[in-house]
Amino acid sequence: MPLSLLNNSLVHIGFMPDAAGINRQIMDAFLRFCEDDFSRRSHFFGGRYENLYFERESIPAVKLVLEQANSFAAEILKVNRQGLRSGFWINDMGSDQSTTEHDHDDNDEVLSGVYYVHVPKESGELVIVDKHCRTLIEPQAGMFVFFAPNVVHSVSVNRSKERRISMGMNFGPVTD
Questions:
Q1: What's the maximum distance between 2 C-alpha atoms anywhere in the chain?
Q2: What is the pTM of this model?
Q3: DSSP character at residue 161
Q4: Distances (CA, A) of 141 to 20, 91, 104
Q5: What 3-state class would DSSP assign to 4?
Q6: How far is Cα of residue 156 from the mean position of the Cα atoms in its chain?
Q7: Residue 57 dihedral angles phi and psi, to the nearest 5°
């Protein structure tokens, strides 16, 4: 599926083919996880860890999402896919939770993104902060949103009674 651009050019949006089946596999596996299945947790705010890390092999369907994400990232950056490496984590946002403004400009990232796995109605919008405006993006299951690592962003409050599950991603050059 071709990548579409929002008209402010800060954000690139694409969609995962067969997202419903893939997302169901991710959700089923994620909901079976226990504390020991996470190799690392980071960003403790508001009583929760915002980033949950696990091995790719733990949820085989994640590989399909990352392959599509790498294709989109290579297209956006106009580079060969083999020249990119990616890292990812899960964001598990419960009812009445939000994510504070932040960026991903920590290391040698060249692109950041998010993939939406489970998005109940009113579970929060992605807020992209620019010098001149705030862009609100209503997520959908199966949607990818890509942006530069130095773009400040947040997620508004989850007003639903369900958890919202997404995958954060960073892409950087392959290094030896």
A1: 45
A2: 0.88
A3: S
A4: 8, 14, 22
A5: strand
A6: 15
A7: -65, -20
- Give residue 100's Cα distance to chain centre: 15
Residue 14 contacts residue 4 (beta carbons within 8 Å): yes
Cα gap 27→33, rounded to integer Å:
10
Q: Which domains does the chain have, with CATH numbers?
A: 4-173 (2.60.120.620)
Q: What is the DSSP letter of 18?
A: T
Per-residue confidence in pLDDT tens, the chain, 176 aa: 445 444 446 789 999 999 999 999 999 988 887 667 676 666 666 777 677 667 778 889 999 999 999 999 999 988 888 888 888 888 888 899 888 777 777 777 889 999 999 999 999 999 988 878 888 999 999 999 998 888 888 899 999 999 999 999 989 888 76
What would the DSSP string read from start to end of 74-110? Answer: HHHHTS-GGGEEEEEEEEEE-TT--EEEE--TTSS-S
Q: How far apart are the first and last CA of the chain?
A: 32
Would you state the structure tokens that stand for residue 66, as one six-digit string?
Answer: 């990352």
